[in-house]
Design brief:
The chain is of the alpha+beta class. The chain is 16% helix and 41% strand. It contains two helices and eight strands, in the order H-E-E-E-E-E-E-H-E-E.
Length: 138
């Protein structure tokens, strides 16, 4: 009887540990060309539905460090995503703009940067079953 109880305990522990395992992959993004150590670098992982409409499905930030920083997005399920990144020097959690509409703070998106507002089509990338390391430049 003790053996049956012990086997049951080990079986339940195994199930519990598997339930706590990561459910997706890790997307690691290194951002180059940070011009100052003021404020934070904010990153958000977006779907087509959230891109340019507010917070992403996963959001993170780190203290700015002149040179480069790395942001990590964990447990990302397979799919099509885009990254939006900005250096929030004044820590107001939003992009600041000049009177002519140009951004005052450094920013980047995944994919191809073009003139004008970023688009999901230009910024999208695929997440499958392997971790991803990206390097982007402000």
């Amino acid at each position: 009887m003790k053996r049956l109880g012990l086997i049951l305990v080990f079986a339940l522990a195994t199930v519990a540990l598997r339930a706590q395992e990561d459910k997706g992959v890790t997307v690691k993004v290194t951002i180059e060309n940070i011009l100052s150590d003021k404020g934070n670098v904010i990153g958000s992982l977006h779907t087509a539905e959230t891109f340019m409409k507010g917070p992403g499905i996963i959001n993170t930030e780190v203290d700015a460090v002149k040179g480069e920083v790395t942001l990590v997005f964990s447990d990302v399920e397979p799919g099509t995503f885009a990254l939006m990144l900005m250096h929030d020097e004044n820590e107001n959690n939003r992009m600041d703009f000049e009177s002519n509409g140009m951004p005052k703070e450094s920013f980047a998106t995944s994919g191809d940067m073009s003139f004008g507002p970023p688009t999901f089509e230009n910024a999208k990338f695929e997440v499958a079953d392997k971790d991803i390391d990206l390097r982007l430049r402000f």
